[in-house]
Design a protein that fits this description.
This protein has about 350 residues and is of the alpha/beta class. The protein has 10 helices and 13 strands. Helix 8 links the parallel strand 9 and strand 10. It binds iron/sulfur cluster. The site of iron/sulfur cluster (SF4) has 15 residues, from loops.
């Protein structure tokens, strides 16, 4: 839907509204940008003027840091962006850790289509180890357990009120054996979607052990055996691509195709989405890639930055498209991890 007349169309913008977060997750892919103090943000009027110029825009997402960490930010920056999106009829997603009091989320929930959380923990001990693993190791287990419970009760309460809560698990060596269990916990919380992604080996996660492709495939097969098929599973940045010459990859793709309630999402980064940093106005391909800014909303249009990426040398080997497979090519980080050196322009979907 976002590739027309042979070209990608910019339909989605993500805004990084804060670099602050109360947590310090071991695997955080934006890790080093997390800060205690923040500079001023670009004026909302400028942001809205630039968004107005994107006539093809359909969705807007808000990310951080933790967008709900500061009440002033929530009321004076996040809420007006959501109101703008509502006025324009855009669909919205807010990425949040749901660790604060429920009313914080109730205040924005009517304007949000999807509240999106991370869920990688089989219990409070797991949460304590992972959630404070990078600089807040002093958080006591009892305090951590309260926060763990609050995420669960907040998610359940919001879901019970009809809010679409989505939870994402990353696949790495630690979570791989537990993905089915995580899926059932997510269902119990009332979430309506379980996103499953590879761990991005960026920033703080860069030194965590990654799975090789065969291990990843085994993890997905086990997950498919154990998951609750009533809950929508969304695979994002899936490393198994329709052009793979490996029969085991093709068998997995076929299994995924036949299974109920599963979608495989194409990678949006730079294909139909860009990220805007609300402090600098810089426009990026994603919020954590190491590609320098493509433009800045103080000086240029969002669409111009998107256009720069379409002909960028770093994108060229991955800028492929196989309409029969509805595939628009791999995610950059995942391609570097699982398909080093491959120029996907030389490949074609099998079958
Ligand atoms: S679009 Fe690219 S990644 Fe997808 S099947 Fe075709 S060649 Fe492979």
């Amino acid at each position: 839907m976002t590739r027309r007349s042979g070209l990608h169309v910019l339909t989605s913008v993500e805004v990084t509204v804060t670099n602050r977060c109360n947590m310090r997750c071991r695997h955080c892919a934006v890790g080093e940008t997390l800060a205690l103090k923040e500079p001023d943000r670009v004026p909302l009027s400028l942001l809205f003027d630039r968004l107005d110029e994107v006539s093809t825009l359909q969705t807007l997402s808000i990310t951080g840091g933790e967008p709900s960490e500061n009440l002033t930010t929530l009321a004076e920056y996040v809420l007006p962006i959501l109101q703008y999106a509502r006025r324009r009829g855009l669909r919205t997603q807010v990425n949040t850790n749901l660790t604060f009091e429920l009313d914080r989320y109730r205040g924005i929930a009517p304007l949000v289509d999807v509240l999106h959380i991370s869920w990688n923990y089989t219990g409070p001990a797991d949460f304590h180890r992972i959630a404070w693993g990078h600089g807040r190791e002093h958080v006591l287990p009892a305090a951590s357990a309260k926060i763990y419970e609050r995420i669960r009760t907040n998610a359940a309460a919001l879901a019970a009120e009809g809010i679409f809560v989505s939870a994402e698990s990353m696949v790495n060596a630690e979570t791989a054996p537990h993905l089915g269990r995580l899926n059932r916990m997510i269902r119990e919380m009332g979430c309506r979607r379980h996103e499953v992604h590879p761990m991005y080996p960026a920033d703080w996660a860069a030194d965590l052990p990654i799975l090789d492709k065969a291990e990843f495939r085994r993890a997905v097969n086990r997950f498919l055996d154990e998951r609750d098929p009533e809950l929508w599973t969304l695979f994002g940045t899936f490393p198994f691509l329709p052009c793979s010459a490996d029969p085991a990859d093709q068998a997995l793709l076929e299994r995924v195709r036949r299974a109920p309630n599963i979608s495989v999402r194409n990678c949006p980064d730079g294909r139909n989405r860009v990220n805007i940093n609300a402090f600098t106005g810089d426009i990026f391909v994603t919020d954590f890639a190491e590609i320098p800014a493509l433009g800045n909303i103080w000086t240029g249009q969002i669409g111009s930055a998107f256009d720069i990426w379409q002909t960028h040398a770093a994108f060229a080997p991955y800028n492929c498209y196989c309409p029969a497979a509805h595939c628009t090519g791999p995610n950059l980080l995942v391609a570097h991890m699982y398909h080093p050196g491959v120029d996907f322009r030389d490949r074609k979907a099998v079958g």
